[in-house]
Amino acid sequence: MSRQKMYYFSYYRESTLKNKAPAFLPFLLPVIVAGLYCMGYIPPEWLNKQAEQLPRSAEPMPVGLERLLSARRARVQDLRQWCAEHLDGVAVGILEIGCGHGRFLVEAAMRFPEKVCVGLDVLSRRLRSGEEKRERRGLQNVFFVKAEAAEFVEAMPAKTFGAVYILFPDPWPKRKHAARRLIQNDFLTALAAKLVPGSKVFFRTDDKVYYKEACKRFSEHSHWSLDTHQPWPCDSTTYFEEVTGGYRSLVAVRNLLISAKTPCHWG
Ligand SMILES: C[S@@+](CC[C@H](N)C(=O)[O-])C[C@H]1O[C@@H](n2cnc3c(N)ncnc32)[C@H](O)[C@@H]1O
Questions:
Q1: Which of 4, 36, 246, 252 is the most buried (most CB within 10 A)?
Q2: Are residues 106 and 171 in the same domain?
Q3: Does residue 102 share a domain with residue 45?
Q4: Which atom of ligand 1 is the closest one to the Cα of 148?
Q5: Residues with CB under 6 A from ligand 1
Q6: Of 182, 10, 217, 212, nearest in space to 98 by CA
Q7: CA–CA distance, 210 with 208 (Å, rounded to integer)
C-alpha cells in the first residue's frame, strides 16, 4: 500500500465521522428512500406491502420508511375525503388511470354526460392540461385528481366505477423494472375489491411484452376474465396513441366468483 493510501486508510480508521455514521443514518435514510421513490426505483407495490406489515410488526421501523408510510397514509386519507365530497352516491362512473393530458376522459365525459368521470395522474402539468380542456367545454361531470393509482383505489368507495380505462400505461420495458408496471396481481385484487361483478377494465398498450403480461395476469387472476368479444366503447384517440405506432387492447371483466380462463393471443 502506498504511503498516501496508508494515510487515508488510517485517517478513516481514526475518523470520528466513521463512528458517527450510524447516528446520521436515520436522517439520511428518509432523503435517500424518498429520492429513490421519486425516481421510480421503489415501486408503489413495495410500499403497499410495507404498509400492510406495519401494524403487525413488533420491530421498530426505520425512521425513513415510517415517514414515507405516514405520508402515504395521509395522502390516502386526503383522497378518502375527496371521494366522500365528490363521489357520494355515484354508481356508474368512469375511472381513467394515468389519464395524461385528459383528452380521452374529456371526450368520454362529453359522450356520457350522465356519468361521473375521474382521471388520475401523478403529474400536475398533465392534469392541468386536462382541466383546461374541461373548462373550455364547460363540463361538470369530469374530475382530474393528482393521485397514485394504488392509493386512489385504496381510498375510493366500493361500487363507484363501472369502467376503468388504462390507456398506454408506462411500459417499463427493461426486465429489471418490470415490477413497476401497474398491472400486478396485488393491484388487480385491490381493484376488483372495489368494483361490482361485471365491471370492466379497458387496457391498451403499444408494448407487446406488457400486453402479453397483462393478458396473462388478468386471465390467471381468479377475480378477472378476459372478454375477447367485448367491443371498445369509446374510441377517441389519446395523446400517446397518436405518438406511438400501433397498439393492442384487452377488455377484462370483474368476475362474480372464480372465472373460466380465456386464452389470449398477440396479433
Ligand atoms: C404514457 S402516459 C399515457 C397517458 C394517456 N393515457 C395517453 O394515452 O395519452 C402514462 C401516464 O400514466 C401516469 N402514471 C404513471 N404511473 C402512474 C400511477 N401509478 N398512478 C397514476 N398515474 C400514473 C404518468 O404520469 C403518465 O401521464
A1: 252
A2: yes
A3: no
A4: 20
A5: 44, 97-101, 120-123, 126, 148-149, 167-170, 182, 238-241
A6: 182
A7: 6
Q: Is residue 264 part of a domain?
A: no
| Pairs from 255-259 (Cβ < 8 Å, separation ≥ 24) | 255/192, 255/197, 255/222, 255/223, 255/224, 255/225, 256/197, 256/198, 258/222, 259/222, 259/223, 259/224, 259/225
Is the domain of 209 the same as that of 170?
A: yes
The three-class DSSP label of residue 209 is: helix
- Label residue 264 exposed, middle or buried (CB < 10 Å: 0-12, 13-18, 19+): middle
The average pLDDT across 145-157 equals: 97
Q: Are residues 38 and 160 in the same domain?
A: no
Cβ–Cβ contacts within 10 Å for residue 185, how many? Answer: 12
Instruction: Give the residue numbers marked as catalytic.
Output: 170
Q: Which three cell numbers stand for residue 59?
A: 420491530
Mean pLDDT of 24-35: 73
Domain of 199 in residue numbering reads as 91-254
